[in-house]
Design brief:
This protein is of the alpha/beta class and about 260 residues long. The chain has 6 helices and 12 strands. The strands form 3 sheets. It has an 8-stranded mixed sheet with strand order 1-3-6-7-2-8-12-9, sandwiched between helices. Strands 4-5 form a two-stranded antiparallel ribbon. A two-stranded antiparallel ribbon has the order 10-11.
Length: about 260
Amino acid sequence: MFISSEDSPVCFQGLTLVMPAVAVGNVGQLAVDLLVSTLNMKRVGYFHTDCLIPMAGNNPYASSKEDKEELHTAAEVYTVDELKLVVLQIRAPVVQKKSKKFRQLLLSWIKDSGFSRTVVLSSSHAYQRDDGQLQGTPLRYLVTPALQKLCAEALKELGWREMERVKSFPGIQDADTEPQLHIPGGGFTKGLFTDSCSEDVPLAVLLIFCSEGDNIPDAFTLINHLNDWLHLLDSPNENANKWKIPPSWSLLFGSGIPPALF
């Protein structure tokens, strides 16, 4: 359930929504962090739901002492009017048995808000790729039929590689086995994409194959990939040096080794 923090109702009609999936390496969430921090996006509301593990903390995008102690929650919505862009940042895992309910909640909000398109940033286990997926770029995309009609030419010009369908049991010759969409480690990515196809929602998934560890480089790769399409920064060829790292990233790997140990 979306709750606005504005005095007047927030209108999302015709805007683009970008959101992460809680997936391997948290790459989508890190990429969204870069987006919110760089574009200095304004928080306009949050999601209140029992589908996410409850959490709260200080402002991850603090730029001064005044806003450092603002309270932030598990799922928040940010906007930047000039780019007609809305971002939903999800900071907590989905409760294991409530994934379907959360997807339904998201789709209901997306449809009611009237977004022109939704882009999900996600990731998948690199070690579970099949032989064909080992070649070339680790980046893949998916689009629903509803969005394919609107952006077919743009995607063709970009020359992106669509996520392959693979057999459930590679190497086994079985005429009855049809290739299926398989996104291991992708969280609710596959379910949300499948539901969006069924409900005619214009949605795209951009994902990267990765492994757990320091996933900051993966986040930069994924957000640059998104920028090639949406042109959120003015100079795409120089964007690697333009993304602003939020202050919260200084604690990604903890607060350091306590000197008292030595």
